[in-house]
Amino acid sequence: MLVSLPQVRPTPNPLAKEIAILGGGITGLSTAHNITRCIPNAKVTIYEASSRLGGWLNSELVQVDDGEVLFEWGPRTIRPDFGGAGVATLDLVRMSQSP
Ligand SMILES: Cc1cc2nc3c(=O)[nH]c(=O)nc-3n(C[C@H](O)[C@H](O)[C@H](O)COP(=O)(O)OP(=O)(O)OC[C@H]3O[C@@H](n4cnc5c(N)ncnc54)[C@H](O)[C@@H]3O)c2cc1C
């Protein structure tokens, strides 16, 4: 069951045409997802310094003799009490469940 959280993000400007997001971690990705839902016609660009998206989130599926083992090199739970990233993750989960 998802807990009820306070609204922590400002409402995006509905007239914005081009939006830049710095960082492709879970916060940047969920922000981009949210903005594209709120302002479908805006051009959203994510600027990511590294060669992959996800930031600290990094899952690796390793083949072993009996099948596969999933390694989580970063977070494996959601802690909304530590601020933006956790709340953004829960928002993303919630949004992915709504039509
Ligand atoms: C080992 C480990 C275990 C963890 N376990 C948990 C857990 O179990 N539960 C939990 O809730 N949290 C956990 N955390 C914390 C969680 O990983 C972070 O809170 C969350 O991933 C932060 O997401 P973020 O998108 O805000 O930042 P980040 O994941 O740091 O993403 C920021 C992104 O911005 C990019 N960037 C930085 N500077 C620039 C720049 N100037 N220009 C362009 N791009 C830039 C970076 O390359 C990165 O991709 C853990 C963290 C670690 C390290």
TrEMBL record:
<dbReference type="Pfam" id="PF13450">
    <property type="entry name" value="NAD_binding_8"/>
</dbReference>
<dbReference type="GO" id="GO:0005743">
    <property type="term" value="C:mitochondrial inner membrane"/>
</dbReference>
<dbReference type="InterPro" id="IPR050464">
    <property type="entry name" value="Zeta_carotene_desat/Oxidored"/>
</dbReference>
<protein>
    <recommendedName>
        <fullName>Protoporphyrinogen oxidase</fullName>
    </recommendedName>
</protein>
<dbReference type="InterPro" id="IPR036188">
    <property type="entry name" value="FAD/NAD-bd_sf"/>
</dbReference>
<dbReference type="GO" id="GO:0004729">
    <property type="term" value="F:oxygen-dependent protoporphyrinogen oxidase activity"/>
</dbReference>
